[in-house]
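Intended use. Records like the one below are meant for learning the mapping from a protein sequence to its folded structure. Do not use them to infer anything beyond what is encoded.
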Amino acid sequence: MKKIGFGASSAKIIWFGEHSVVYGQPAIALPLPAVEVTAQIETSSESSSQIFSRYYDGDWQQIPAEMNGIKRLSEYVANNLQLPSTTFRLSIDSAIPAERGMGSSAATAVAITRAFFDLAERHLTRSDLLKIADVSEQVTHGNPSGLDAATASAQWPIWYVKNQENTQLPINLPKATMVIADSGVKGKTSVAVNQVKEQLIMNPETKDIIAEMGSVAQQVPAALKANDVVSLGSLMNQNHELLRQLHVSTAQLDLMQAQALKSGALGAKLTGSGLGGCLIAIAPNSRIAQKVADDLLLVGASATWIQPLNQFEKQD
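Structure written out for the chain above:
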């Protein structure tokens, strides 16, 4: 066993298919290596383990309830690696904002799991990684889909159909660049999900919106392979309009979407559950992406990130 173990993971965004994925339509998610979380575990001679993070610094036994997922995961992995008597210092450094639909809790779970296996000098398969990370997600979210952890640990986009498919998509976008912008308002996942559910009951035409979102997502894989950034942008705009029809966008997100297009983005949409959270925009190159990011800050975005889309490995 080493003295220090290190693990890393990244944020994720839903590129296409939020909300409609709940009703059996496909979703496409994208890992964001530009927005990283790291975990470092160091063996300790102290009588009790310690944790250091943006939410809490201190004794392991005094971890606040909102971090119980991390506590449960760490103890589970330590036991499985036969490290239960080892005390340690766990340091978590995350650039992923919480409650923005960027998969903060799942990315943290992936990073911690990787750090423990690195400490123990044990090989970790991706399937085992996802099973272990789910221990934390079950505590944090109750009944997670697994999409967040699958995407946070992936090297390319994920094609996901609930209870059916979870596969990696080939991508060929040598110049296109993604901009992610935080609206400054926390997303309201449970409210948005329940709102769409009620709308489906009250308005039968909502089923057509959900089906159209699925149709949009079906067109994405071909555009990803063909470097068809114009079509990707158009599909993103269509997806945003459909989300507006589900009433999960906000005036701020709509303002940011319009500004992104005005600044040169080929497409832009909210990402995640909506009613807050983030906007994503696709630009034809890094220069325009930087202009889009700068202009979004001028219309109220609280933070922006730039993710080149040529960083993802192609599927063999």
